[in-house]
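Predict the 3D structure for this chain.
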Amino acid sequence: MAASATRWGILGASRIAHDFLVAMKTLPENEHTVVAVASRSLERAAEFAGKHDIGKAYGSYEELARDENVEVVYVSTLHPTHAPLCKLALNHGKHVLCEKPMTMNLKDTKELFELAKAKGLFIMEVSERNFVNPSTSYPLVQLSRPFHKRPNILGYV
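Done. Predicted structure below.
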């Protein structure tokens, strides 16, 4: 791992996290590397870490959020836990990439975006369409602009 690589942590040892890691391994290791995974069960996290050659496994999401070596968190847990885990990561100074849906309601979405903005952090909901065709992908186009210059961004939730 190069010192300049973006260091990722995975919240949730799920099937979609497996798919995410398979895709991430196609990227240069000196650009992106996964350094930790957390699950509600240390055994599950350790099994996942072993399968994907991840250095640290945690039995709680809080432990990963406190890991100073993690810069960006990928949230791949059950839908109702997305908002609280995004908030946990943001409150620990982590950028966030969250599986859809990021939240279950508009109020929580606004709260997360406001928190990210206040802390100077990046947060994004993952959608397959974000990465398929950038010319038709609203989020990628909008994310290239500062938060305050994105009219109606929360109208698409």
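Residues 106-119 form the longest helix (14 residues).
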